[in-house]
Automatic annotation (TrEMBL), chains A, B:
A molecular function GO annotation: carboxylic ester hydrolase activity
E.C. designation(s): 3.1.2.12
Functional summary from the UniProt entry: Serine hydrolase involved in the detoxification of formaldehyde.
Similarity field: Belongs to the esterase D family.
Domain of life: Bacteria
Name this protein carries in UniProt: S-formylglutathione hydrolase
Any GO CC annotation of this UniProt entry: cytosol
SUPFAM superfamilies in the cross-refs: alpha/beta-Hydrolases
């Protein structure tokens, strides 16, 4: 697997770099970004936090707006930010170009329905292909944690819950907690997976938490003034599901905060410290 | 003077807000942004750092990408970010739409030449109109400092040097230090001010520093791997001019850093602490 460097910039003594590669899972060329803290070297590989972004984002939104590198540099954690969907010629999009489905909206699932299934295999890309690539090319250990925002919070929770042997800890900002039960999720899951809602449960954090055995530690932050809270996000259902199975979910409701990266930057240091406690065990 | 609130978001316990108003200096509608730290209130007004952005920027670039609010919240400093030029219908732009002149490139001067002089009065806007508006509408004191990046570093230095009674301290990232002597500056100054280069000196930091009496404290950070360093920025000339007049300029060359907001976010905390030392005297 080869990768091509597209950009690099020094930040807080470490390096932010963007790469392009051909994804076999997604059948297209993909871009991702990595932040390597100053201490990362072949002799001193560092653990990795995977960050999954929300609707409309690329690898750039978190890296430019979250203000995460100061803490990542200090804690010695690499951060990898993939794109949010397959891209490029031949990759189908929402017929009306809507922001909540298709390009920029892969929902971190493996699509089973045509025409989506040829490219929209974001679950396999994030769980298998990308970590393999990262661990082959960069000075990182096999210690991984996963976090994300909104659609990416949904991705982090579902991927972490389904792969507890591959990650140390999970966190999310404003996750789509119960996609089976909200407009964004229902639109995406019906197109990517078809109308049999039994198939949707494997990508629904509330459903996964209900039947969870021993889950990884989970931290969730949610702004109380988030305009999507009631209709799309529903974190209270996460908490109820976690309680029913005795899972380890800490939900923090944050008064006055909205759905933006201003919210994320206010609490990202807490998330990095949370993950560091498990990544560097 | 009335202002209209366009957006607000809580961040690090304070508030980021965008406003629109009719500028009499610029003869058009303008947008600016303010960050108010948590402690700011009518009973506890806070000092203000004015941030001037570089070519192509609006009020949003610094506010979204600099990661400045954590330190501003802690230090109790408001930050005001104006746009970089007049905007809107009737405001002339570079005939070829170039990024380095016209819209997004006001260079913080008062234009004397037609057709630019009707709107391009950014110097007066930043020095007089904007602080008056801010001090009328927000819980801030009259303590001001000024900073900026690239074209905005040039703006911060020239405005601070020419108005030492109005500011407490000056800082800059990667400033255009000697605009009379670089392509960006020569293009802008010749159009805005005409071909008499004597007129340019009032907006040239090197010229101002040569003849400075007692200047404010000045901190400048410059990335050594900045692609614009040799041709456009020339901070070594700042230092030479400061030495000739005994002015207080601290220039820090930062190995490996480029011209981007990744560089700015790496050192913005130092600048905020630098200004806080003078603003909160």
């Amino acid at each position: 697997m080869t990768i091509e460097n597209l950009s690099q910039a020094k930040v807080f003594g470490g390096w932010h770099k963007q790469y392009q590669h051909t994804s076999s899972a997604l059948n297209c060329s993909m871009r991702f970004a990595i932040y390597l803290p100053p201490e990362a070297s072949a002799d001193n590989p560092v653990p990795v936090l995977y960050w999954l972004s929300g609707l409309t984002c690329t690898d750039e939104n978190f890296m430019q707006k979250a203000g995460a590198f100061r803490a990542a540099a200090k804690l010695g954690i690499a951060i990898v930010a993939p794109d949010t969907s397959p891209r490029g010629e031949g990759v189908p999009d929402d017929p009306e170009g809507a922001y909540d489905f298709g390009l920029g909206a892969g929902f971190y699932v493996n699509a089973t329905q045509t025409p989506w299934n040829k490219h929209y295999q974001m679950y396999s890309y994030i769980v298998e292909e990308l970590p393999k690539l990262v661990e082959e090319h960069f000075p990182v250990t096999g210690s991984r944690s996963i976090s994300g925002h909104s659609m990416g919070g949904h991705g982090a929770l579902t991927i972490g819950l389904k792969n507890s042997e591959r990650y140390r800890s999970i966190s999310a900002f404003s996750p789509i907690s119960n996609p089976m039960n909200c407009p964004w999720g229902q639109k995406a899951l019906s197109h990517y997976l078809g109308n049999n809602t039994e198939q949707w449960k494997q990508y629904d954090s509330v459903e996964l938490l209900k039947s969870a055995q021993a889950t990884l530690p989970i931290l969730v932050d949610q702004g109380e003034d988030d305009g999507f809270l009631q209709e799309q996000l529903k974190p209270e259902l996460l908490l109820a599901a976690a309680e029913s199975s005795g899972s380890d979910v800490k939900l923090r409701m944050q008064p006055g905060y909205d759905h933006s990266y201003f919210f994320i930057q206010s609490f990202i240091d807490d998330h990095l410290r949370f993950h560091a406690g498990f990544l560097k065990d």
